[in-house]
């Protein structure tokens, strides 16, 4: 997997998991606490994903860009807490700790990818 793919995969998966908890809609800034990447990278990845997939639809409301993930999430009751027992990238079991959603290996891969792309 290329470095760009590692970054894109992490951003898309965190966005998807967050959308599950937020009724299907996320703003790029909502992903910042979960990923060690810039807002620009998050926005670029989500824009690319929306262009390539019908499962993500970008919308602009009052000048703010948001992304609607699969309409099935619209029926989900929004929650303010996102926790998981599996890594959002590889699904390996992890101990849910605060805002950490990546296992150590995927976290290291993401950091390496970010350093390489820098």
Write the layout of secondary structure elements.
Layout: H1 3-21, E1 25-26, H2 39-52, E2 56-61, E3 64-69, H3 104-117
Antiparallel strand pairs: 1-3, 2-3
What is this entry, summarized?
The chain has a single domain (3-117), classed as Orthogonal Bundle (Arc Repressor Mutant, subunit A), CATH 1.10.10.10. 40% of the residues lie in helices and 12% in strands. It contains three helices and three strands.
Total helical elements: 3
CATH superfamily: Winged helix-like DNA-binding domain superfamily/Winged helix DNA-binding domain
Average pLDDT number = 80
Structural category is alpha+beta
CATH class: Mainly Alpha
Shape: globular
CATH T-level topology: Arc Repressor Mutant, subunit A
Sketch the major β-sheet: 3 strands, antiparallel
Low-confidence stretches: none
User: What string, H for helix and E for strand, traces the elements in order?
Assistant: HEHEEH
Strand order of the largest sheet: 1-3-2
For the CA atoms, what is the radius of gyration? 14 Å
Fraction of helical residues: 25-40%
Number of strands: 3
Number of separate structural domains: 1
Could you tell me how far the N terminus lies from the C terminus, measured between alpha carbons in angstroms?
17 Å
Beta-strand content bin: 5-15%
Give the name of the CATH architecture: Orthogonal Bundle
What does this structure look like?
- The protein is an alpha+beta fold.
- It has a single domain (3-117), classed as Orthogonal Bundle (Arc Repressor Mutant, subunit A).
- The protein has helices at residues 3-21, 39-52, 104-117; strands at 25-26, 56-61, 64-69.
- It starts with a helix and ends with a helix.
């Amino acid at each position: 997997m290329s470095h760009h793919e590692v970054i894109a995969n992490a951003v898309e998966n965190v966005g998807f998991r967050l959308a599950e908890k937020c009724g299907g809609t996320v703003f790029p800034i909502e992903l910042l606490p979960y990923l060690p990447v810039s807002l620009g990278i998050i926005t670029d990845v989500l824009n690319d994903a929306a262009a390539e997939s019908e499962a993500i639809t970008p919308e602009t409301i009052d000048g703010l860009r948001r992304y609607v993930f699969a309409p099935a999430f619209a029926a989900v009751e929004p929650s303010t807490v996102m926790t998981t027992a599996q890594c959002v990238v590889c699904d390996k079991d992890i101990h849910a700790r605060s805002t950490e959603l990546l296992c150590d290996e995927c976290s290291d891969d993401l950091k390496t990818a970010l350093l390489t792309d820098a």
